[in-house]
Amino acid sequence: MVYEITDETFEAEVANSTVPCVIEFTAGFCTFCDEMTPVFEQLSDKFAGSVKFCLVNTDANRQLRIKFAVAAYPYIVLVADGMQTPLFDELVNAERLEERIRFVLEGGKAPTTRPL
Fold first, then answer.
1. Which listed site, 15, 42, 67, 69, has its alpha carbon 20 to 30 Å from 115?
2. Structure pTM?
3. Per-domain residue ranges for the chain?
């Protein structure tokens, strides 16, 4: 299951989540974002219960676009334990995204991890 996140639901659904969340920031003009949808659905099934997959439409959720400094689409971030780790700012396949998620969750260091 892929969750739709808004400015209003972010705290409850992501910031206070007991499982890590992978968020894709999208925009209406972004055709690559549409191509990520099946990847997110596939990985949400694969990681069911251990990672929550979320979408944020930045056209409608300006506060989150600003909070995460979204400058490119699709922008994919992992949020866990009060920290945000950018994963990609481009279209990627399921294997590459899964590899990066596992790397970060297993303690791999990313140079731009920062507090929420």
1. 42
2. 0.94
3. 2-115
Q: Which fold has domain 2-115?
A: Glutaredoxin (3.40.30)
Question: Which pLDDT value is given to residue 111?
Answer: 66
Helix (H/G/I), strand (E/B), else coil: 33: helix
Q: Are 22 and 53 a contacting pair, CB within 8 Å?
A: yes
Q: What is the mean pLDDT of residues 87-97?
A: 96
CA distance 89 to 72: 6
DSSP character at residue 72: S
> With the CA atoms of 86, 33, 64 and 70 taken in that order, what torsion angle do they form, in degrees rounded to the nearest 10?
50
Residue 116 has pLDDT above 80, yes or no: no
Structure confidence by residue, pLDDT tens digits, 19-77:
999 999 999 999 999 999 999 999 999 999 999 999 999 999 999 999 999 999 999 99
| 79 SS3 class | strand
End-to-end CA distance of the chain: 24
55 CA to centre of own chain: 7
Provide the pairing of β-strand 52-57 with 21-26.
parallel
Structure tokens at 106: 């297993």
